[in-house]
Request: fold
Amino acid sequence: MKFTIPLIALLVIATTTKAQNNIQQTENEVLEQINSYRKSKGLGILKVDENIRREAYGHSQNMAQGKIPFSHKGFDERFERLGGFLEISSGAENVANGPLNAKNIVDGWIASTGHRKNIEGDFNLTGIGIALAPNGTYFYTQIFVLSKERPRIIISEFEQELLRLINEHRKTLGIPALRSNDKIASEARNYSNQMAQGKVPIGAPGYDNPIRKIVNVFNASSMSEVIAYDYYSPKEVFDSWMSSANQRETIEGSYNLTGIGVVQSADGKVFVTQLFLSASN
Reply:
């Protein structure tokens, strides 16, 4: 069966795609020029964060659509939302309107004392959003953020080292080492991912969570778990568990199988789940 797409629809799609590409290119050019200026002043370059870019674009779009005046309206709310993704120490914002021309906008900001202060500020992250108004004017928003950058971790090494620390501790107490199991680790990783995506609260899984079914898979007589969040080394996780009487009791418990699942979210936060099972197989 053949389908025919009206020519007018193709033209609209082509025009829209071209406009979006032009806006994306201009956003990149603004960033390049801002970073070039910062480098000329001996300042570090700004890295783009998608969460920040989303907030910047949303503000530009609201101005372009006339939902809010050309202003910094909603500034505090934008940074409050960003606080859910980043550890923000400070932030600032530049706005502008005019043609789709990066040099025109950046030169205007640099010529303005207040805007230039933001460009030269002690920031490390940024996001730039441009939106087109019905009258052909483009609205620009650039958000600047100083945020503690979370280190990236190597998942497999993190999990292996954490298990080593736990088994070393059990060995000092004369308790048999835990054997890692891929199926259990997969369930642990799934739960860490649920926490990272905000699908479940940070903490132990509820009794109705699918993770509990792992007991039936191994015909286990008992099962427990420990959870960690926002630690960036296995030693930090291990020490936090050792400082908790309940978690330490689990780690030192009469279990023989385990699985550790570590997930690092897009904004760098680390979520750890370790499952413990007492099973015959």
Notes: The radius of gyration is 26 Å. Residues 25 and 102 are 9 Å apart (CA to CA). Strands lie at 47-48, 88-98, 125-132, 138-147, 179-180, 222-229, 257-264, 270-278.
